[in-house]
Design a protein that fits this description.
Length: 257
């Protein structure tokens, strides 16, 4: 338990993995937003399924049933649960549907800020929580309309390769060759199924890794850019500004240990 109040709770969840098969259905009893800090797992809801990782979270609501699998090891998540009255007040009656959430850089930064404000649950954490929820609902306002089936499976395989730093994930052409499709087909299907291009998704993962390193205390931005595969520090700065709305130096001040 990170923080708890009559309106909400914030729980840090760590799963050691080790069970690659699907779990029995697990019913939800609260409105909840789940965001991943590290690792990944697979989730199957009634009408959809997805790989859940730092760039993809999900919403669930009372009565929703979820199944989970961990074929790639464990994960660390943050589960934010809301009392019904707080959910209704904070979301202005947002429809309660289980949905995957595209986690952009702003949501990830709000997530990290939420965990750092837990000492003041009454005000600082509540403010961060309302801001986080606003960003999450903004991303669910225009849901991705993927086709499912083979298209979804192909997009998930591409995401898994990028998350695992597979050698073939260094470029579009070798990644497409690994997955047995043409580069144009992979690029088109990935954008249709996820709502973002492969290059944008790759940048999201690199920004997550940059945030991890800055939170650990990294202070040499040029070395950090080289470590993460950016062409130079200016490239890192442009990418982080586009994803987060802030420069690496500003983020470093926010996340200072």
């Amino acid at each position: 338990m990170v923080a708890e109040s009559p309106e909400f709770s914030v729980v840090s969840v760590r799963c050691a993995g080790g069970h690659s098969g699907w779990s029995p259905p697990e019913p939800a009893d609260q409105h909840q937003v789940v965001l991943v800090r590290s690792g990944r797992f697979r989730l199957r809801a009634e009408a959809w399924g997805s790989v859940i990782e730092p760039a993809t979270g999900y919403l669930q609501h009372p009565g929703d049933e979820m199944r989970y699998a961990h074929p790639a090891g464990g994960d660390a998540c943050t589960a934010v649960s809301f009392a019904p009255h707080f959910w209704n007040e904070a979301t202005d009656g947002h429809p309660a549907a289980a949905l995957p959430v595209r986690v952009d850089g702003r949501i990830e930064l709000a997530h990290r800020g939420l965990l750092r404000s837990s000492a003041d649950a009454s005000f600082a954490l509540a403010e961060h929580l309302v801001g986080l929820l606003t960003e999450v609902l903004r991303q669910t306002a225009v849901p991705v309309r993927g086709s499912g089936g083979r298209g979804r499976a192909l997009a998930d395989q591409a995401r898994e390769a990028l998350l695992a730093d597979h050698p073939a994930a260094a470029g579009l052409v070798p990644l497409a060759r690994l997955l047995g499709v043409t580069p144009s087909h992979l690029s088109r299907v990935f954008r249709r199924e996820t709502g973002v291009t492969l290059s944008r998704y790759r940048n999201r993962l690199r920004v997550t890794r940059a945030l991890d390193r800055l939170e650990e205390g990294a202070d040499d931005l040029a070395a950090l850019a080289a470590e993460l595969g950016f062409s130079d520090q200016a490239h890192l700065t442009r990418t982080m500004r586009a994803e987060l709305g802030r420069t690496p130096a500003a983020v470093r001040r926010l996340l200072a240990p």
